[in-house]
Amino acid sequence: MAEPEMDGAAQTAVAFSPARDLAVPSGSDQTMRDRLEQGLWSRSSGRAEVPDHGRTSNEKSDQGVLVRVRTQLPEFTGALQRVAEQVLADPAAASRATIVELAERSGTSPATVTRFCRALGFDGYADLRLGIAAETGRARLAGWTVDIGREIQPSDPLERVLGQIMAADTRAMHDTAALLDLAEVERAAVAIAGAARVNIFGASGSALVGEEMQFSLHRIGIPVWAWTDVHNGLASAALSRPGDVALGISHSGETGETIELLAEASSRGATTIALTSFPRSPLAELADIVLLTATQATTFRPDALSARHPQLVVLDLLYVAVAQRTHERSHAAFQRTAQAVHGHKAVKDV
User: Fold this and answer.
1) Disulfide: which of 99, 135, 160, 266 matches 19 by Cβ 3.0-4.6 Å?
2) pLDDT tens per residue across span 249-298
3) How many angstroms from the chain centroid is the CA of residue 277?
């Protein structure tokens, strides 16, 4: 028997965490439950956030339709996922297609396309088309569309490869800036600036990004450690106390070790920060503060690898924000550390 066509959003499984359970407000009010299911509850303030469908079409376009499609892709199942994949595969064609044409190309129905639009917060297909058209138009003007989405061939000259990488990374940076909530960056900076201890957790490529952040914060006198070994990380997380900060880095937000480490630190009272590309991932659901990134994959650089530069941009912003809030201490630390390593620099001929 053929499997029936499924429309809807997949539910993401989240590992048990005492801290996460404590973050959920009590009560049986149906509206509250609906908002929790939609990810509209602010763990930091304990209040319901304004739903995306309450924004105007112009505001949605400014925030990046394709970014939201890419971000919500793991939540879609069946037919809705096929529509999302078709839109991402050829946004320009989607912006020109009728609802019937998009349904045929994705192997679905016009009703499914309509449900897809509403899942993104649009009233109908016309609003979705306008949003995609505006975004692809801006991309063309900025030169980001050069080779984006084209497979890099073994025979391609390095000039073409360089152009594709630059275009993809530029687009990812722009999308990240559109996604990033500066109020969340502010909260994270304040927490780190006043923390007695900062732990950074990440695996594989995320661990390398975490070590970069550890180096930057260390130079301005922040007591910070980056852990890549799970056992050592768990030991440090278990010693966390209220006022400490734990930063978990994972593009997918589904790395089991990072989730476990952040959950342990959270259960001990630490303020938790997640750096991820998926706002409804297990890691994001666990964290008190969520910093979002966007990616633009290319051949030989899938999402997990192409996430590195957007992650570094967000962490650089966070680092500078911390330095601003600890200006005198940071300036003094820079002076001392620069003096300490000065003797190891090459002597220039006079």
Assistant:
1) 266
2) 999 999 999 999 999 999 999 999 999 998 989 999 999 999 999 887 66
3) 2
Structure-model confidence comparison of residues 19 and 70, the more confident one: 70
Cα(195)–Cα(262) distance, rounded to whole angstroms?
16
Burial of 259 per CB tally in 10 Å (0-12, 13-18, 19+): buried
Give the chain as a 3 state SS string: CCCCCCCCECCCCCCCCHHHHHHCCCCCCHHHHHHHHCCCEECCCCEECCCHHHCCHHHHHHHCHHHHHHHHHHHECHHHHHHHHHHHHCHHHHHHCCHHHHHHHHCCCHHHHHHHHHHCCCCCHHHHHHHHHHHHHHHHHHCCCCCCCCCCCCCCCHHHHHHHHHHHHHHHHHHHHHHCCHHHHHHHHHHHHCCCCEEEEECCHHHHHHHHHHHHHHHCCCCEEEECCHHHHHHHHHCCCCCCEEEEECCCCCCHHHHHHHHHHHHCCCEEEEEECCCCCHHHHHCCEEEECCCCCECCECHHHHCHHHHHHHHHHHHHHHHHHCHHHHHHHHHHHHHHHHCCCCCCCC
pLDDT at 96 over 80: yes
Look at residues 254, 274, 280 and name the one whose alpha carbon lies nearest to residue 119. Answer: 280
CB-based burial label for 350 (10 Å; 0-12, 13-18, 19+): exposed
Q: Which amino acid is at 331?
A: H
Best CA proximity match to 212, nearest among 230, 195, 194, 224: 224
Antiparallel, parallel or unpaired: β 198-202 and 245-249: parallel
Would you say 282 and 253 are in contact if contact means Cβ atoms under 8 Å apart? yes
pLDDT digits (tens, 9 = 90+) for 100-127: 999 999 999 999 999 999 988 898 899 8
Q: Residue 4 corresponds to which tokens in the numbers above?
A: 């029936």
pLDDT of 40 higher than 70? no
Smallest CA-to-CA distance from 144 within 180, 101, 113, 178 is with 178
